[in-house]
Write a structure and sequence with these properties.
Elements lengths: L50 E4 L4 E7 L13 H13 L2 H4 L3 E10 L8 E12 L2 E10 L6 E11 L3 H6 L2 H8 L2 H10 L4
Antiparallel strand pairs: 1-2, 2-4, 3-6, 4-5, 5-6
The structure holds decanoyl-CoA.
The site of decanoyl-CoA has 23 residues, from α1, β3 and β6.
Length: about 190
């Protein structure tokens, strides 16, 4: 089945996700995978500064507070920003699987408007793995981990090799990342077979 027609539900026979034995313990703050990442980078002034933690099994919890720079309508978060928060939280499942994967497909339900100043409490879970395809779902709630649901997403991530980034990224940033010991450490943490 080609891209665009790929179902977001794991097919029958998909493998159950397995938490990597060296995955960070539940509760561990994961930290940014890249300082300039729009989702989690601490050095990215326009970003979400989303903070993700390892959960139980293959799950992640994350928080992100909507800033004035994230508005779509007056006083409300932009939908694309909320989709980014879901994408980032889902992508953080990579830390627990210890694979490198990129978003292939992301479908978002916007259930409630999210005001500026609200904190979105997100939770993502891996639902199954079929070859290189990683199926995952996420939910975001307003202001409390058990607050009202604002957004939901289902996604398929596709496992890639590290060279997906070195081949495709702009050379300036790739060169800088490869010279950064912190970035090398992150890359190693994702490589199952270094
Ligand atoms: C490093 C850790 C980072 C952690 C945090 C990250 C958070 C943010 C995550 C992101 O936002 S990543 C950025 C957004 N995503 C991208 O830029 C990906 C752009 N797309 C691509 O580079 C390629 O299309 C992709 C690598 C996803 C797939 O190309 P391939 O040539 O490797 O795939 P191929 O055609 O061999 O297909 C392999 C399988 O995946 C399926 N597939 C491929 N593209 C798909 C797609 N787009 N959607 C759904 N399924 C897809 C395809 O049907 C097939 O399934 P089957 O094995 O069952 O036949």
């Amino acid at each position: 089945m080609g891209p665009g027609r790929t179902t977001l539900v794991p097919p029958p026979g998909a493998a159950s996700p397995v938490r990597h034995p060296e995955a960070p313990a539940p509760g561990t703050l994961l930290g940014p995978h890249y300082d300039q990442c729009f989702g989690c980078g601490e050095g990215q002034p326009h970003g979400l500064h989303l903070q993700a933690r390892a959960g139980e099994g293959v799950s992640i919890t994350a928080e992100f507070t909507v800033q004035p720079a994230h508005q779509g309508a007056p006083g409300l978060a932009h939908g694309g920003v909320l989709a980014s928060a879901l994408d980032e939280t889902l992508g953080s499942l990579n830390w627990l699987l210890r694979v490198i994967a990129v978003t292939g497909r992301l479908e978002t339900d916007f259930v409630r408007p999210v005001p500026v100043g609200a904190t979105l409490h997100l939770e993502a879970r891996c639902m199954g793995i079929d070859g290189r395809k990683i199926y995952a779902s996420a939910v975001g709630r307003i202001d409390r981990p058990d607050g009202p649901v604002a957004v939901r997403a289902d996604a398929v991530f596709i496992e890639v090799k590290l060279d997906h980034f070195t081949r495709n990224g702009r050379p300036e940033e790739i060169k800088a990342a490869m010279a950064d010991p912190d970035q090398i450490k992150v890359a190693r943490a994702f490589e199952v077979n270094p």
